[in-house]
Predict the 3D structure of the following.
Amino acid sequence: MTTRECFIGIDFGKTHVRFAVAEEQPDLKSFTKRRYQRDTPDGMLRQIFEGIDAALSETGYAREELKGIGMAVPAVVDRGTGVIAWGPDWDFLPGTSLTKPIAERYGVPVVADVDTVMATWGEHWAGLGQDCDRFVLLAWGTGLGTGVVLDGQVQEFPDNLFPEFGHSRVSDDDWSCNCGATGCVDAMVGGPGIARYGRLAVERGEPTLLHALCGNDPECLAAHMVFDAADRGDAVATAILERVAVLLGRLCSNAVLTFQPQKIVIAGGLAKRSPRLLETINRTMREGCWLLFKGLSDCEVICSHLGDRAGVLGAIRKARQVAIPGLTHGSGEAAMHARH
Ligand SMILES: [Zn+2]
């Protein structure tokens, strides 16, 4: 009888947590999404234990076949101890280690990292970054998280920090950002930023479907309404998204000049709405980057196809990294992808 080994990836969003199981390949044996309650540390652990036990039960793996667990969290987390420091949406668990009690209960290594870093691991293992030694990930959703792979390695910085060039300034606008600075691209292109552009257009009385979509209450305006209006040919909404695409394109110019990536991959909750913006993003990026317009780089901005699975895939890949010392990118994956 062959011995099976499995790993579990957990990815916390704002309201839902995803659980997935895989072995050594990035094909998921199960993927489930559950709503979770923000709770005390004990309450959070109870919900995590339930999710892990359900994932093992659904896939038929025995507890002793589980070899490691990875967890993506929307917060700065100490990679050594798993202690949560802070996060704009995760301010209810400071000083708590979620990894230690999980490791004690299941008797396996448990690793936690910020969600953007885990998504970068996932894109490198299973997505469009898998055949790249150098690529940049933009996690586009409520903000703009960033990840970087250089020389085939996901970049993880000291003091549990991570690449933060989503907070670069690419506009004269002085909108306040969650980080405390003003004018960050994060504040303008994230969901709340897109909603704000829409709200301002409504308040100015511009002729747009957004009036009806928000029920004539600008405070109710959400980013998806701007995308929906643009999909219906609304000129005001289209111009807002064009502006967002230009800002993203400028950020991508800076990313190419700084990291010289082979690709820039847009992931995150808004990635599925990004294809309509890719032409403007790529054009703006090329116009602002001499490496591109002189033909010294052929970097292109593309849209991830991993959907909301990048985080769990990355968490599983990083759990394997911790459980199997010396594992390198590509090993154990049956040479699925030619590398150079
Ligand atoms: Zn910022």
Summary: The two ends are 37 Å apart (CA to CA). The longest helix spans residues 235-259. Residues 167, 177, 179, 181, 184, 186-187 surround zinc ion (CB under 6 Å).
